[in-house]
Amino acid sequence: MDEYDVIVAGAGVSGATAAAMAGKLGKNVLLIDRNSAQEPGRKTVWGWVCGDAVAKSHITFVEKNLGETFSNQALGLKVDGVVALSPDLSYKLPFDGEGYSLERPLFGKALFDMAMKNGVEFKGKFSVEGPIIEDNKVKGVFGKNEEGKEERIRGKVTIDALGIASLLRRKLPENPYIDKEIDYEDLELTGRFIYKTEDGFDDTRYYDKKNALIHLNQQMAPGGYGWVFPKKDGRVNVGLGVQHRSLEIRNKKFSESDNLKSLIEKYVKWNPLFKQYQLDNSSRNGEGYWSVSVRRQMEGMVYPGYIGVGDSMASANPLSAGGIGPALIGGILAGKAASVAVESSDTSLEGLWNFNVDYVKQYGKSMAGLEVFRIFLQSMNNQDIDYGMRSFITYEEAVEITYGRIPELSLTSKVAKLVRGVGALRTFKDLVWTTQKMKELNSIYADYPKSPKDFPQFKQKVVSIINEAKARMPSSPV
Ligand SMILES: Cc1cc2nc3c(=O)[nH]c(=O)nc-3n(C[C@H](O)[C@H](O)[C@H](O)COP(=O)(O)OP(=O)(O)OC[C@H]3O[C@@H](n4cnc5c(N)ncnc54)[C@H](O)[C@@H]3O)c2cc1C
């Protein structure tokens, strides 16, 4: 006997949203987390580790689908957008449009309350240890309950929203759809702190009350970036992400032994905003470290009886590492797909396949292209990034690229004649190659397989372009 229509494992952003949606559609839903109901969405002992920035359009998508609105307290500070600065701080590139700098604990609670309002049952302090597999189908989850006793819970569809280190994903049977492990090179090791700073600082290259700032700098944040995101009440979310391989190369070249912690300390020292600052550790959420994936989302995100969503499927944007938006969108679509499958009594691979199609259409279609652009960025040193941002593309073209839309490079013919120096020429050629591959990937994703039978050819095409990009443009931060 199946006990539940839908089991949602993980009550973070993606899981609470999926549960709220399936509950709204009248399904009998169980939401499980190792946290108690008092701390929904807390990722680790370090708190709700995140930069907290999300685009307004993603919030609106959830509000429309759930017929609910978020309070201003949960949404936090409204911002005009995200702005990336070149290493020499002379060039600013906006992306993502209007958004919010969330109060993550309150936002997590708001999503959780929406799920409860829709009749979802919650089981807290339960540690999920793996999927129940019978006849090559996921039939629920097993794990340890509050008393430390093993429990098995059965459901028609299991939604995996356990985040990046998901034990459900990693314990699925071998299959061609979902990679069980995320390649170390595709992970950003990140840390972030919430500080209260002094009022009156007005150099918008280092801090901007109206924008979430990203500092691209391959020496300060090899293979990643640093960020300073404004929050309500004069607080700031400051953090840094690095790619392990890039950090190793940079340390070796400069005979340094920096790690993530020391890099964050140096980044804070570098930024004149932080002359005077104090840790804001309310809700025990002031400091912490965690990882975020910057690859395309898993090529397929369903398995018989199983849908993966959010960080468990590596769905964060490969360029910005923004994962809240895709977790929200994925949560809504997963809740709907699971409900449809239960109603039609078809929870097979085919019965759940539409989740892939809908997700790719709604959000995921340009992520593989953006991954190639990320690989390109990681292959450049600071000078190449400064020069390339100013000289190779127009401002409008750069903005288009951040959205994953590929412009015809208007300066191509002019630049090709003018570029001087081996490094700049290589960068320029790589940029042209990169935009071509982004275009190819976008068209491959525009034709996402409508059923599992066409999946192998699709995956093979995607993986071969990504591998080609990695071979052509290895990490080379300094
Ligand atoms: C430092 C940092 C900065 C970031 N900045 C941003 C940003 O500014 N904007 C943005 O959009 N994204 C950002 N991200 C990414 C974003 O935080 C994630 O993409 C998002 O939280 C994904 O939500 P999720 O629900 O899929 O997973 P999670 O938030 O990780 O939720 C997983 C849930 O599963 C539970 N869980 C896990 N394992 C088990 C288990 N075995 N048993 C029971 N429960 C379990 C956890 O308790 C948690 O509640 C950042 C990430 C990091 C690390």
Task: Provide a descriptive summary of the structure in words.
The protein has 478 residues and is an alpha+beta fold. The chain has three domains: 221 residues, FAD/NAD(P)-binding domain, CATH 3.50.50.60; 109 residues, D-Amino Acid Oxidase, Chain A, domain 2 (2-Layer Sandwich); 106 residues, no CATH class. It is built from 16 helices and 19 strands. Strands 1, 2, 8, 9, 10, 11, 18 and 19 form an eight-stranded mixed beta sheet that branches. Strands 5, 6, 12, 13, 14, 15, 16 and 17 form an eight-stranded mixed beta sheet that branches. Strands 3-7-4 form a three-stranded antiparallel beta sheet. Helix 1 links the parallel strand 1 and strand 2. Helix 11 runs antiparallel to helix 15. It binds flavin-adenine dinucleotide. Flavin-adenine dinucleotide binds next to helix 1, strand 3, strand 9, strand 12 and strand 17.
